[in-house]
Design a protein that fits this description.
Length: 126
């Protein structure tokens, strides 16, 4: 079974994806805001908490800041995509091969800068 190659976005799809990007930007900003408090360096009161819960607290904090890093990276991508969508006319085009990324992929991840085959090529290299 072969899937047809992705097509260029219609004007309606572009409008819809721009709205998705804006909503995503707001959501990710809120996540960063909410996570900022949780990711503050743990001040460890050794008498108040034992060794095990101290390790727990550190691990939890590392997970939190890793999550925040990922959120920040995604927010960067979202903003870049928004700029392309609002200023340029190349939104929806793969930044590597310039082929259309395709609506289904953009609907799932509107901030994605590359088409599926470039993405998998990049992942294979990494
Ligand atoms: Zn591509």
């Amino acid at each position: 079974m072969s899937t047809p190659p992705p097509e260029d976005l219609t004007a309606a799809q572009q409008t819809e994806l721009r709205a998705d990007l804006r909503a995503l930007e707001v959501e990710l900003e809120a996540q960063l805001e909410a996570g900022r408090d949780g990711a503050r360096p743990v001040t460890l009161d050794q008498q108040a908490i034992g060794r095990v819960s101290r390790i727990d607290a550190i691990q939890q904090q590392q997970m939190l800041s890793e999550g925040l890093r990922r959120t920040r990276r995604r927010l960067d991508q979202v903003r870049r995509a928004l700029r392309r969508a609002e200023v340029g006319d190349d939104y929806g085009q793969c930044s590597r091969c310039e082929e259309p990324i395709g609506y289904p992929r953009l609907k799932a991840r509107p901030e994605t800068p590359t088409c599926l085959s470039c993405q998998s090529a990049l992942e294979r290299r990494a």
